[in-house]
Amino acid sequence: MDPDYDLFMAIVTSGSLSAAGRRLNTSPAMVSKRLSRLEERLGTRLLHRSTRKMALTAQGQRLHADLQTIMTALREAESRVQGAADEPSGPLRVSAPTSFGRMHLAPHIGAFLESYPAIDFTLHLSDEFVDLFADGIDVAIRIAPEIPRGLTAHRLARSERVLCASPHYIAARGEPKSIPDLAKHRLLAATGQLPWRLTGPTGPTTWEGISHVHTNSSEVARELAIGGIGIALRSLWDVNRELEAGTLRRILPDVTGSSDIAIYAVHPPMPTASLTLTAFIDFLAKLYGPVPPWE
Fold first, then answer.
1. Residues spanned by the domain of 126
2. b/e per residue, 213-248, with b = 16+ CB within 10 A?
3. What is the pLDDT of residues 163-212, one digit of tens each?
4. What's 7's domain CATH number?
5. Rounded distance between C-alpha atoms, residue 188 and residue 184, angstroms
6. Is there a single domain that holds both residue 100 and residue 232?
7. What's 211's DSSP letter?
């Protein structure tokens, strides 16, 4: 492949011009010069760059996705020549939300790698938005109502959410009998999770509310609910064990979170998905379907 394309991919993977220079044993000035030369040759800017931040332009995202497809095809061609045809192999960089990844992905990675030992697996857990193009992620698990254009999405399972609280909280402060009763109770949610979009007997509604404890961690909100601090709206995949054990109780059982939330595997668009990517998505589909294990 063109050396300047190799340089561009190294910049995206490394996250900065200086880091790419260290990776390629080249000075940052030379990296910048070669990147400018590539942009001039292509007639478009590929990266927005400043002293503090670097981000792919729309054209850079498109080139990065196309080059990833080409590199995957080249690796598979080499594997066929070396006698490893039709075997998933090589790097696979996966991103997932922290709680979901810890609870429902990490415990199953061993089984996946037993089936495909030639895959070099990397797992990145974060509750922040992950840019697949800029962060060099091959596939991400997203829990969302919809997936933006520009990404290929595979629906894995629904994600039902329920209102719940601990028996200790209910004994101390009572149990709401209707959605308006939530005004008399302590609510628990991480930053950005309120207002709640709920679906009840009278249809969809939005409940504003303020979290009794302010936190940027969804896992902390969950633990506060278990500790008896208030009422939380949680995904079944997150609290099904506690509901079964009785450490949390479902309240307002005829009310759920909005029904349009689902769990997806998403990746940059490509003409043909690699064997490695296909193997992982198929593995997830069998793991979470046809009925999610948390249901």
1. 88-158+261-288
2. eebeebeebbebbbebbbbbbbbbbbbbebbeeebb
3. 999 999 999 999 999 999 999 999 999 998 999 999 998 899 999 999 99
4. 1.10.10.10
5. 13
6. no
7. B
Q: What is the pTM of this model?
A: 0.74
pLDDT reported for residue 259? 81
Side chain identity at 32, as an amino acid letter? S
Give the torsion sign (CA, 135, 109, 234, 199): positive
**30 and 43: one domain?**
yes
Rounded Cα distance, 87 and 275, in Å: 7
**By the 8 A CB rule, do 57 and 46 touch?**
yes
Q: Are residues 177 and 203 in the same domain?
A: yes
| Residue 62 burial by Cβ neighbours in a 10 Å radius (0-12, 13-18, 19+) | middle
Q: By percentage, how much of the chain surpasses pLDDT 90?
A: 55
Here the contacts of 209-216 (C-beta below 8 Å, separation 24 or greater) are 209/182, 209/183, 211/187, 212/186, 212/187, 212/188, 213/188, 215/190, 215/191, 216/190, 216/191
Alpha-carbon distance 94 to 101, whole Å?
A: 10
Taking only the tens place, the pLDDT of each residue in 49-83 is: 766 677 888 888 888 888 877 877 776 666 666 55
- Going by the DSSP 8-state scheme, the letter that residue 49 receives in this structure is E
| Domain shared by 107 and 171, yes or no | no
